[in-house]
Amino acid sequence: MGILSSVTTTAPNLPPRFVMYAPEKAGKTSFGAQWENPLFLMTAGETGLLTLIESGQVGPTAHLPSSEENPTGFLKWDDLTDAVRAVINEPHDYRTLLVDTGNGAENLLAQHVCDTDTEFLGNWGEFNSFGRGERRCAPVWAGFLNLLDQVRVRRRMAVVLLYHSKAKQFNNPTGKDYEQWKPEGYERLWGLTHKWADVIGFYGLRVQVNKDDKAYKEERYLRVQPSAAIVAGNRYGLPDEVTSAPNAVALYRAFDAEYRKAKARGVTARKWSKEEFSALLTRKGKTWRNALSWIDKSFGTTHLEAKPDFASVSAEHVALYAAWLGNQPDAPPPPPPASPPPPPPPGPVPAPAPLPAATDDVEGEDRSDPTTGATRTPTTTAATPNAPLNSTTAVAKPTTLTTDPAPKPAPAFGRRFTAPPAPGADVAELLALMHQLDLSWPEVRDRAEGKGEEIAAACGIYGTPGLVLPELALSLRNRLRTELEVRVAEKKSRAAKRAANKAAREAVAS
Length: 510
Known about the structure:
The protein is of the alpha/beta class.
């Protein structure tokens, strides 16, 4: 097979590489703490997270290094990179890795290179001379970004770098120079990070004062499109700015809603051909019936009864099922064919063994005569080898080998579904939670009734999760997450009680 046989037109569904920068005390860390199941890596002096936890501004949040062993953050570059490798290789369930801050990590790298490189040996004058130190740091920083990519790809985690901001003069080759907000750090290293990031956002506070100077309005904004005054950008088609009430939690929720809308467009915009979809089903060990059953369970359709062809099923439903199925493990390869039996050795053909005698005896039968009490002797008829088919001579019937019916294919959903939810749109994650809880769409809608939320009415209007707006699907998703956590806790409690009862019985018996 040639190289061109591996050409593809699709992309894996991966979480984002996000860079955010802001002035001091603007709320960078509070914003980062809102990401899903976060793990913070605190660099030297960047330990504001500990104060936020202590004061109750954010909830308990996982972080390294341990605040008891090292309350000042990572002091060495090797310790920081070892922590990233542990995130890649050790078991855990974190969904977001945050480096607080990116410019703090750059400073650790600069110290490491200055101390260990034979060209500098701790001499900062030599390090800063003509940018020599930055040039030595650049390939090491590129390797660090590659480590973060492994976190994203191998562990399916979002990666977030938080930076301090600075205003720097931009040398405009076509006009007057002007100042521009950009992340603080080494220019050569920032050039690598700028290319690496999927989203670069500037987090600011805007105050609007009315004409009479008697009232004003504050709002937080996250600029994710470049402008003359702000370095920013994204690869998801997000709006120029995301705005919210003046607090970090509200701004994160607004950004998350816009991000998930963009991801949803990518999932449902994919148009699967019949050949591509068939290849996906084969690779995952599923059938067209599995796909129709999944879609019926999710959207309340009746495809299993109608048995439609591929062209008659909603392209959006096919895309959502494909997004979910793409994150399931591939089916195991089929076993190798059995080798043929060896040929018989040369020589005369042995005579066939005589057929066993036929008998009307039944194993376990009561052989006593019910009237006389005498024991009945089973009737036996001698079997004649090679007897003709119309012969009246009784011939023992050959044993018929029966096999169990072929096992049914595993359902595409149900209580045994344990795969992680498909990343991306809240709709896809909502569907995965529905299958994990073994809930139909009408049952999910029932959970929204009477809650006094906008989602209850929206569910009645849209009718299926594939058409529910992402911000509304987020509410249902969180509700189902809570229900799943309760079920898991109850299951663990029952298991603990059984173990305790078993231990008590064993103690009494001994």
